[in-house]
Amino acid sequence: MTTETALRTRYEALLAETLPRVRARIAGAEAAAGRPEGSVRLVAVTKGHPVEAAQAALAAGLTDLGENRVEALETKVPLLGRDGVTWHMIGHLQRRKAARALEVADLIHSVDTLRLGERLSRLAGERGRTVPVLAQVNVAREATKSGFDPDAAVDEVAALSRLPGVDVRGLMTMAPLVDDEAVLSATFAGLRRLLERLREGGAPVGPELSMGMTHDLEIAVREGSTMVRVGTALFGPRPE
Ligand SMILES: *Cc1c(COP(=O)(O)O)cnc(C)c1O
After folding, report:
1. pLDDT single digits (tens) 131-148
2. Of the residues 228, 229, 234, 240, which should be mutated to test ligand 1's pocket, given the most ligand atoms within 8 Å of the CB?
3. Within 10 A of 223 (CB to CB), how many other CB atoms are there?
4. Which CATH number do you get for residue 119?
5. Structural domain for 160, as ranges
6. 192 CA to centre of ligand 1 in angstroms
7. 126 burial class (0-12, 13-18, 19+ CB within 10 angstroms)?
């Protein structure tokens, strides 16, 4: 067996165990919140893992794959194609890489400044297309995380949503890496309320809330997440 085949077999065996557990966690959280089953999309985050992990994910029936670097998408997308896959760019995007992201990502979760949005708008216009994005908000105001400041987010995301060629489908956040449920709930509820205010104010922003990862997805689903981004619980710890 080649190394590649062995790797893929290993990821398939892993997913046979982990995917049912992750799906059960999501379904349990949907039920507990009184939300319909299937209302939360599972984005499988293969960042840090080789292309075999993504292949195994597709073979297991996953359709949404997430990466945090443009380079990783540029490696995996040509190998796996775009049929039946939605590719999510979830990591910080530098403006100078915006054109490259446009080529490989189906949804950019991490538009974190108006300037990046303006760049994407211009590039979309040049290509005669529309870029689907989410606006990332740094709800918990962590110095280590990017995102719109929550105080400015209503105005700035409204401006983002009015740029030509930029289709803001909703909002994204990352919660602090803590176990305190109150902090996590407050962060996710804060994002949901920002989205409500934007939409009530008439901004053309879609209903998506990308929030929840391996350690906090139940709380995110309870607070209205429509998309959870899960890596570790599916693929194990990331190889260094
Ligand atoms: C790595 C990453 C995830 C997945 O995190 P896990 O804890 O491994 O589930 C989700 N979202 C973003 C933005 C990430 O960078």
Report:
1. 999 999 999 999 999 999
2. 229
3. 23
4. 3.20.20.10
5. 3-235
6. 19
7. exposed
